[in-house]
Amino acid sequence: MIEIISNINMDSLKYYLSIDVLESCGYGNYMLDLSDENSSIYQSKSEFVFLFLDIDEFSGNFDEFLELVEKFLQKSHKILILNTVSFYPKQIDTFLYQTLQKELEYNKKILQLRNKYKNILIFDFYNLSKNNEIYDLKYWYLARIKFNKDFFEKAAKEIELLINTYKYGSKKVLVLDMDNTLWGGVVGEEEIKLSNDGIGKIYLDFQKNIKKLKDLGVLLAICSKNNYEDGIKGLNHPSSVLKENDFIIKKINWNHKADNIREIAKELNLGLDSFVFIDDNPVERESVKQILPEVTVPEFPKEIYYLNDWFLDVVKKYFAKITLTKEDVLKQKQYENNLKRKQLEKNITYEEFLKSLEIKLDFYIDDDRFIERYAQMTQKTNQFNLTTKRYTAHDIKNFIFSDNYTVIAVNYKDKFGDEGITALVILEEKKDKVIIDTFLMSCRILKRDVEKEIINKIIEMFGNKDIIGLYYPTKKNGQVKDLYTNFGFEKIDENTFLRRANGKKSN
Questions:
Q1: Confidence at 25, pLDDT banded by 50, 70, 90
Q2: Sign of the CA dihedral 386, 389, 390, 393?
Q3: Cβ–Cβ < 8 Å for 222, 251
Q4: Are 445 and 422 in contact (CB under 8 A)?
Q5: What is the 3-state secondary structure (H, E, C) of 183-207?
Q6: What is the residue-wise DSSP string for 270-328?
Q7: What is the mean pLDDT of residues 88-103?
Q8: Lowest-confidence range among 276-280, 475-479, 483-487?
């Protein structure tokens, strides 16, 4: 549920949002609402508040406005969505650029606020206003409605995408075809189009954009019907921005593409719903859609000239990020290390394998340095996740600074590399018991006995109390249904498991 407040009439927005909108006070009361902790935006049941500031109609002190916003961020449990500001494009400014200077100054302060707090999201009105004819002067003077239907439709989509990204995260893997997708033409049969001129420039820019996406922590994979040697030649082309080592897995063969994508998912130990598949061939796209409905398969642009604009929309829709963590930046290296571990595991016994890894675990207790990572894990982790509760960064911050909760995070290292923070436990503390609200681990460290060390850590910290473990079954977390009984917990019912204080057995 979302609540909308503004200094102009933004009521029309609610007709374009698919999420429930809570009726707010009339427009213009936003300053009072922000300053009064008894106002509806503090007290209502809405999870999000969209505060739209029309800078043309704003006559107050901007720093004082931001101070009220900051107070709301400190005092409220809600997530605030605040817009970047943009003046009406036609100003009595000639070539003095005074309005531009103000816009840049104000927006810099807004972004600084965003970097300071975990419970604020930014709606980029500045960008939207510069690229669209969004104003309606007739209705502005008749009803104080400044924007047209096109704006409200775009704004609603942007807000919903922002909220969904914040709550659920984004896709993890981009799988790409090669011929007429990464370059023009068919490698091995003709000179491919990949250059700084003409059609080749389109594909060159496309590869540059894909490379930027990889730098944001998205895994890249190849799924192409071709001879392997020819496909590799394409990646070794002098103009190719993307090289062999940019792709975590390369399936270049004549197998069905759906089978190849299944194999990629299995090798990475990721769900198919984490994948986006791009292919210029409509038959191949339809085949993957039919066989693997969990995989996202966007339509390819009919005119190749629009390839990069189309791709930027794909990135925004499926790979958008609110924050960028250390784990995101190192994502490919971490998965490459995991593939090396799997190769090692094939050649020795399981016990020898674990010993050879030289595992080192670091436990972080109520450490607020990595809040974004903790939230990201609750939103993305499904397989080893006993309760599958989703939390925002603001939720995690509240847990960390609460007297009734303890947050334990685990950083995993071994001889192949540092996997970063890959396990999380959230404990609710009561007088004589501790409830394991959340227990999750990244798929990258499964089957390494990390869960055993985590249980031992919980017992070390709270062994003098009853420890209650919860398990809520989903379609994906069946592998952990016996976790608590395997570690000596009593099964109370289908969802509840108990380890009594000091390990005492029930009579």
A1: low
A2: negative
A3: yes
A4: yes
A5: EECCECCECCECCCCHHHHHHHHHH
A6: --GGGEEEE-S-HHHHHHHHHH-TTSB-PPPPSSGGGHHHHHHHHHHHHS--S---HHH
A7: 88
A8: 475-479
Q: Is the dihedral of CA 355, 356, 357, 360 positive or negative?
A: positive
Residues 6 or more apart whose CB falls under 8 angstroms from that of 180 comprise 186, 280, 281
Read off the pLDDT of residues 185-205 as tens digits, 9 standing for 90 and up.
Answer: 999 888 899 999 999 999 999
- Three-state secondary structure readout of 205-239: HHHHHHHHHHHCCCEEEEEEECCHHHHHHHHCCCC
Q: What is the arithmetic mean of pLDDT over 272-279?
A: 96
The pLDDT tens digits of the residues spanning 421-464 come to: 999 999 999 989 999 999 999 988 888 899 999 999 999 999 99
Distance CA 148, CA 250 (A): 47
Cα 167 to its chain centre, rounded Å, is: 8
For 33-99, the three-class secondary structure string (H helix, E strand, C coil) is: HHHCCCCHHHHCCCCEEEEECCCCCCCCCHHHHHHHHHHHHHHCCCEEEEECCCCCCCCCCCCCCHH
* Domains of the chain by start residue, with CATH: 2-168 (3.40.50.1110), 173-318 (3.40.50.1000), 357-503 (3.40.630.30)
Spatial distance between the Cα atoms of 500 and 503, rounded to a whole number of angstroms: 5
122-148 pLDDT, tens digit per residue, is: 999 999 998 778 999 998 998 889 999
132 three-state secondary structure: coil
Task: Copy the structure tokens of residue 43.
Answer: 């007290």
pLDDT higher than threshold 80 for residue 506? no
- Residues 6 or more apart whose CB falls under 8 angstroms from that of 364 comprise 370, 408, 409, 410, 411, 421
> Would you say 192 and 183 are in contact if contact means Cβ atoms under 8 Å apart?
yes
**Which of 331, 337, 86, 304 is closest to 201 using CA atoms?**
304
Q: Name the pairing type of β-strands 249-253 and 219-225.
A: parallel
3-class DSSP assignment, residue 104:
helix
Q: For the whole prediction, is pTM greater than 0.85?
A: no
Which is higher by pLDDT, 176 or 394? Answer: 176
Of 360, 431, 370, the residue nearest 399 (C-alpha): 370
Q: How far is residue 226's CA from residue 321's CA, in Å, rounded to a whole number?
A: 33
Paired residues of 432 in beta bridges: none
State how beta strands 433-441 and 417-429 pair: antiparallel
pLDDT in tens, 232-270: 999 999 999 999 999 999 999 999 999 999 999 999 988
Classify residue 27 by its DSSP letter. T
Output the six-digit token pair for 466. 């009853």
Type of residue at 130: K
